[in-house]
């Protein structure tokens, strides 16, 4: 279970790196605007906010990645703590999105499914 949890946590981290790219680097592109359902004017008006938000996603991915590295090199307690901090925060953010904007449920589920699975698998694997 621990190995599966680490793999899913890695997938969650990769997804959040992709979200970082969309929010911080390609926010005003046609493809990213379509993904987020934004007009060109809306994307331009929110570009600075999205840039900042994208970095939050990147930092969560980095924390998770460092945790995975620590766990795989035998530092189980530190690695697990960092992975739980990273994917737990990803899961919490997905829940906030779901509760604050129910019309964005699909995005919330996309953002939160890997972190949820990772939390469960890691918890079971560490018991």
UniProtKB/TrEMBL annotation:
UniProt keyword list: Membrane, Transmembrane, Transmembrane helix
InterPro entries with a match to the protein in the record: DUF1304
Coiled coil, from the record: none
Lineage per the UniProt record: Bacteria, Bacillati, Actinomycetota, Actinomycetes, Mycobacteriales
TM ranges: 6-25, 55-72, 78-100, 107-126
The name this protein goes by in its record: Putative membrane protein
Pfam families with a match to the protein in the record: DUF1304
Origin superkingdom: Bacteria
